[in-house]
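Example record

One chain of 153 residues, shown exactly as stored in the release files.
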Amino acid sequence: MSKESFYDTLRRSYATSVPHVGELGIELTRIDGEAAEARLPCRPEFISDIEHQLIHTGIVTTLIDSICGIALLAHIGLPTRIATLDLRVDYLRPSRPGKDLWCRAECYRLTEQIAFLRASVWQDDPTAPVASSLATFMRTGRPGEKSERSSLQ
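Predicted structure tokens for this chain:
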């Protein structure tokens, strides 16, 4: 399978192969070997602090973790099993309702078993992020090895 074909497969099947991605409505807007980007349309149920109208930080964390995972798979370019080892998120400013969340993640170092990624989340301006993140993922299978649950074939 070519890398372009693999990216297309990821784009088409990610929301169904990872149920919470589909439930949240995460839309992949870019996938290639360099980075993955996505948009999360704002929904009223994402608000955790009614008084201050703040989006729940768990939504932001889930977006980051999901897009880091897709960025890693795209960077590898083959189906493989991965798992989040560590995810550090710095919340830089509150995210407000009424505006979509955008996330960009990239793998900046890849070893045989460990991957290192960085991500940023913003609403209006990518140069003014609401959160930034560093993540470490484990490669739990050999490149090309498919998980029993994987529908990315």
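Notes: The CA atoms of residues 81 and 148 lie 10 Å apart.
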